Amino acid sequence: MSAEQESTGLAVKAVHNKVAVIDVDGTLYRANTLFSFSEYFWYRRSTIKWIFLKSGSTLPGKAFFELVSLFGIKNARRSLVIKMFQGVPLSDLQAAAALYVSAVLPKFEVGETFDLVRQFQREGYAIYLISGSIDPIINAVAARVGADWWSSAELESVLNVVVGDLRSDVRGSKLEVLKRQNPHVTEFCAVTDNPEDLELIIASNSAWVITKARKRRWWRRVLPRHAKLMELR
Predict the structure, then answer these.
(1) Model pLDDT for residues 192-226, shown as the tens digit of each residue
(2) 131 with 23: CB under 8 angstroms?
(3) CA 213 to CA 10: how far, in whole Å?
(4) Angle at CA 28, nearest 5°, toward 122 and 225?
(5) 76 C-beta neighbours (distance < 10 Å), count
(6) pLDDT in tens, 129-152
(7) Which residues have CB under 8 Å from 92's CB, separation 6+?
(8) Where are the beta strands (DSSP E) in the chain?
(9) How many C-alpha atoms does 219 have within 13 Å on its Cβ side?
(10) What pTM does this model have?
């Protein structure tokens, strides 16, 4: 990728006949990387923002955002976290994300998923990361994993300064993103924990779904036969 392509999360179209599409949050890592990174980023930069972010991770905070969603305001917490980056140089976020991925995220790795990624690489699959997290984080994760291509929510910036909004998003549209990037793929597998990726799972040749016990029953009702459940403890 060129420097410009890396900052946007896009890569030139490549022909990969076999592709493994890997989710990040809850799949590669037991973490919501956007929320976790935002706390890491603001910890030494703004006490007020850090306290606000930590409160969103508490049970009352989560309950509040669930209540907000009932009134039709979806993903309010995510939008607020992104808005808090307004005015931050994009290069600062990129540098901080690289440190976060190398120093903080390793302790949240899902070993079973990383084993699958290494297996796919040995079998000749191209590794595609497609995640609803933001591009500075996924760029750094892709480098760590050795991904062949990645796509993410892309922060809007003007003159290298983040404006607090997204230029583009991939949530709920990963199959479309895959087909747009590689329309001639002949075989692909999917690894995810996200119910929003059900369309991707159904369209795949094989799939591994990362789950916890409380979601196991729901997944068993909706998964196609070629998908396997991997339960985390």
Answers:
(1) 999 999 999 999 999 999 998 888 899 999 999 99
(2) yes
(3) 35
(4) 75
(5) 16
(6) 999 999 999 999 999 999 999 999
(7) none
(8) 18-22, 126-134, 149-158, 161-168, 187-192, 206-211, 227-231
(9) 23
(10) 0.89
